Amino acid sequence: MSDFEMEDSASGYDSGDNSDAELQAAFERGDLKPGLNVEFNGQRERVNDVTKLLAKTEAIRLKLPWEERLDMVNELAPLAPELAVQLEKHEQKRANLFKGNLKLPYIRPEEDPVLNDFKREMLFHRQAQSAVLEAIPRLHEMGIKTRRPDDYFAEMAKSDEHMQKVRANLMAKQQGQAKSERIKQIREQRKMGKMLAKQTKVQRESEKKEMLDKLKKFRKGKLKNLDFLEDAKALESKQKQSADKRKQRNKRFGFGGKKKGLKRNTKSSSAGLDGEKSTRRQRGVKAGASVNKRMGKSRRIKAKGKK
């Protein structure tokens, strides 16, 4: 055991004996009150043993090289222009907050806690920046690399199988969200289509009702012209033009459906059983319909009269 440790233990024993002696003396004088605490009115003597403090500091000091400690003692880095502008804006904002506001008491900028916190954070930033600017070149001079190489493979905390499961789970969630969004868009489009069809139907019914009302008024003599019929005719001609366009397109491009393999031979066509069907189809008669057409109404009435 060292001399310093022996002295420290001895002083501890002495302090324990002194405290017991003080308690006994206080008990004899009657100063002790019921309870665990004892009121001490005297002033303790403060001991500042610099020699022992320095010895203890030297004993607990770790004698390691600087690259293991990386401790730095340096001045603040110069204030960057963008930080200076940011600080000025912050000061102006705080000044505008107190200006003309009777609810908040005025605080001077040097006593403003919010502004002081901002300045303190800026000092920490400048201190760290200065340490980095000084330590990085020093490490490079010692031959210590400060950047991770491109081909550096670190040992992962989780296995590749686990990460593949996580990636698959994330992809499934992403695909599910995209699918739900697509279904929602389709539903919205269907809803809009139904609404437009309903609006068109209502508009046509209202136009028809309006035309019939005008026609009734004309019959009763309330209207003198039939201009509303011209509008109806114009609308009808427009619809007829669109129908003609559709007929032309159908004639050119067909009616849709399957067209591949229509001229391929089958069992019935090779046996010659489709000849009657094809001739009737060419003449414009549907399959299964009778060739004889029904007579007109006047001819049927005359035929009944002859009977």
Describe this structure in a few short sentences:
The protein is mainly alpha-helical and 307 residues long. It has helices at 3-29, 50-60, 66-69, 81-98, 113-141, 160-220, 227-253, 267-270, 275-282, 297-306.
C-alpha termini separation = 150 Å
User: What best-fitting shape do the alpha-carbon axes yield?
Assistant: elongated
What's the rounded overall pLDDT mean? 77
Strand content: under 5%
Integer-rounded radius of gyration = 52 Å
Provide the helix percentage.
55-70%
- Compute the number of helices: 10
Sequence stretches where pLDDT stays below 50 over 5 or more residues: 1-15
Give me the count of strands: 0
What does this structure look like?
The chain is mostly helical and 307 residues long. It has helices spanning 3-29, 50-60, 66-69, 81-98, 113-141, 160-220, 227-253, 267-270, 275-282, 297-306. The longest helix is centred in the middle third of the chain and has 61 residues, at 160-220. The N and C termini lie far apart (150 Å). Residues 1-15 have low confidence and may be disordered.
Topology at a glance:
Elements lengths: L2 H27 L20 H11 L5 H4 L11 H18 L14 H29 L18 H61 L6 H27 L13 H4 L4 H8 L14 H10 L1
Helix pairs in contact: 4-5
Observed structural traits:
65% helix, elongated, mainly alpha, 307 residues, single chain, disordered N terminus
